[in-house]
């Protein structure tokens, strides 16, 4: 949706001179200025209200739509400033909806939108300004010279909440939306609320400097304060000044690319999913195959037809060195199963001097073979990757024991392209905690967590009856089964059962979506796909929306299993395509969270390395082998932290016409106290009185002030890295965004080994539990609950440093904990690190 | 060759099958010998399929190396493009299987020169010699579980120094560099020349001695690693009880002459040899005080490729959870094979090799490793002299004190001159 809004924004900007912002018919003018595929209808009447992705819905109701710009641009775009731009862009959307609701209240869609435009206690918002959106080509002139105009108008504070949670004080009271000038102090008129009094006034134009109310000079800082002084309806004089200076601000914008379906996404995978600068690691030997996937069927009747046992093969058989020997794997699979009664897991072969590891997974009548060159993945890694893949197939197709259609074949082929691109990208880097099935959880500060959960719960409840005075006539189309919020590939909050979370995670990983949102500037990403789940009464869909690096994925449940008889007489289920309303609602929630600073907070929080703190790089160990791009990114984000939080602060005070902004600090302290609710005129309506926007400021400030906590006892911090794996909740705790230095590399390698040993122990315990099996048959399956390895690294300069990698297994509930700490300290200091599991909040 | 680790007594001589399978690849016929040792879990048909799979892959230009299942590991290896060995094992590591296969193939080479296999592809010869090497292969399969295949088994005794002096005397007099005194199939002392031999040669010669049903032995052998085309004489002379003198020499002199010289040299030291023999299950001198928390010790020297394994008899095995002596040794070996041996390779490979562009100058070493299970703890430590010690502790010992005790124990053994561990 962001692009749509930006289009709108663009249209508004281009027509700013003619002052057309309140008349929707004119918005279409510049709509296709950046994308010929853009589906913006241009009329904006509600019946034909079309989102930017709506033309790209596939025949089977699936949708894969993305807009992004390459990350390689000179500006550090994924960080604060860009986020800000996107935020600004988003605002216009909210007003679009409002105006469309008002203009065509009779249409059905507008009712839906009306529902989505909740009138609840969300009076404060910050990022409501129409700044230099990144696609905008309009240049704003500013200066102190210019014609001054005075406008008399009647303002009514009672309108304060009329326009819903998104509206700012200046919008709802005066009908003017504002944004700061680039100097961060003066206020610019950014637009007008439809049908507002001031909107009909011809003399005030978008881009004007909003100088004063009743001769009180207003600035970004005091606008809210001034407006809040008005407690009863009163007539005021507004002073505007036309800007005539020649200062030009040319917004830095990157070209926006558009992806309309999964196919084109997969085809560009090798560009989309890699870091900006290509490096020489990827020089691939000419006769080498990076990976291969074959799906073979175990029952084929006609032996005459060549290769009729192959259901799917990637790459094509001519290029696939393993294609010719697939029969061997089939044979091995069957004899090992029938004679040794054990499932084959992996095989290794050498062809043309290249070693390949092959992983097996058999379904009923189907054998999946996933092969990767040993240069790209170790055997242990491949097993984990295969688990991920199997999980993905389970999630999307309920296993591979299905009727293969061309659609599915193509889909798997695209996934192969993506997997291949990811393998090449991650070559030679051990990825222990990132390819375990469990999700990597980042525990944000408690307040932020509460707010995230609150926003998600509210979205899930879809309790829009209370948001709207009009009674509803229509049944809801879907129920929300659960939803998950990610920042990059890190889980921020989950409302899903563990099984579905794992499935969703594998979906996002196998489709490379995590890499995509991490590596590129994703402006907008909308996904819709039906997924099968074990249920006879309802159908399930995933709806995923992402803005920048925040991603909200939702599983929707529909109880209508309408069937229709197709022409050939078979019963087919009706295709249920993406629901505009639900996707908008998800996007709305996402925007709400982003406006609330969750994204900025997550970014800062992750790089801050404070809760708990780990030692990043011990002296003398700064070796060359860390990935340069990764490290610079972290640094650049760190550098950017100051700027981004500044920007954010300006923003929040610029637009936020918060009724009780003074209370914000107090609120921060006791967010659960009753006093929170008192200030809200109709607090009874609200299930979530939390105001995200004013948190943002304090969040960011707080992060920089926060005292780092460490998990080892003693004066010094001695922990380099840790991974806490909770099998029960399907989550991993680990320091995020850690550079790939020698220690982390070795830590991860060691973890693979320790993980293997601990898995053995689990198996042993299972065997013990089954009384029928004699446990002593496996002497090597000794019940190991802790395994430690002391590793020393000597680098080129001769300095040596050593560290322990210790893995421990906990039972009830099953958890695994891996800690990497300095070698020369007594172990009892580290014991405390094993208490990590208690830290679930930052 | 099919090998399982839990086979029991099988009569290999009668049931061994050898099949020569001609295969065609790109017009050239590949002949290969396929040897099968029956095992209860793997009937001939299965093994034939496993072989067929490998052959098929080969004809397509793909070399099948290994397959892991839930609990089995299968490996295939071609030697000299002539002999294919297939091994399957349960509960052991892939590395152990590879070592085993190498030893098995090299045991062929004790009796058949490499030339005959390489150039003449003389399968008949390999089949004919089966009588000689099959007992060794049989023993190797046993050892898979009860020994470290890549190292020579030694005994630590206070008398080792005296024996070595005597042995050096003998070596000089007799004029052979390759002499060793073996007590109960464990090396007590050996000359520099003997240690100079490849561990495969050493291991196979001791095995050859142990499988023979006579205590006197004088057989012509190839040394697979040192001399695979020229045969030497391998001579075993019983000295006293299980103590035997092993010598490698040329065609001269006659056996009885050598035996006489040996008896002459060692005639005053028979009581020493006997006391070494008596120390056997412990393999460890009484004089060394070992911490009571220690249940067993495995000491390895990676330079000489030798090891000593011992269980501490001081630990009185009362209490319910105490384990039998052999079980302790099993745990130690398992610990070594699964935790120590693999880790070193894996970490070194992963950080130095596979990552391609990464630091070649930075060197990664694994210094220590430990396991804690519910019933016991294991700790391994290596020093700069290529010594590696694995110690089995009772479960009650605190994890952080294990390091101290292990360091102390290692230092104690290495410093003890009479056991001749550190030459």
TrEMBL record, chain A:
All residue ranges annotated as the CCZ1/INTU/HSP4 first Longin domain in the record: 294-397
Alphabetically ordered keywords of this record: Cytoplasm, Developmental protein
Residues in CCZ1/INTU/HPS4 third Longin domain copies: 717-836
Positions of the UniProt region annotated as Disordered: 1-42, 92-143, 646-689
Pfam entry (one): Intu_longin_3
The organism's place on the tree of life at top rank: Eukaryota
Comp. bias (Polar residues): 654-663
Protein name per its UniProtKB record: Inturned planar cell polarity effector homolog
From TrEMBL, chain B:
Translocase keyword on record: no
GO cellular component: cytoskeleton
Family matches, as Pfam families: Fuz_longin_1 (PF19036), Fuz_longin_2 (PF19037), Fuz_longin_3 (PF19038)
Domain FUZ/MON1/HPS1 third Longin: 293-417
InterPro entries the record matches: FUZ/MON1/HPS1_longin_1, FUZ/MON1/HPS1_longin_2, FUZ/MON1/HPS1_longin_3, Fuzzy
Keywords, ordered alphabetically: Cytoplasm, Cytoskeleton
GO BP term, example: non-motile cilium assembly
Compartment annotation: Cytoplasm, Cytoskeleton
Domain of life: Eukaryota
Span of domain FUZ/MON1/HPS1 first Longin: 24-140
Domain annotation FUZ/MON1/HPS1 second Longin: ranges: 175-266
Similarity-based family: Belongs to the fuzzy family.
Descriptive protein name: Fuzzy
Organism (species): Hermetia illucens (Black soldier fly)
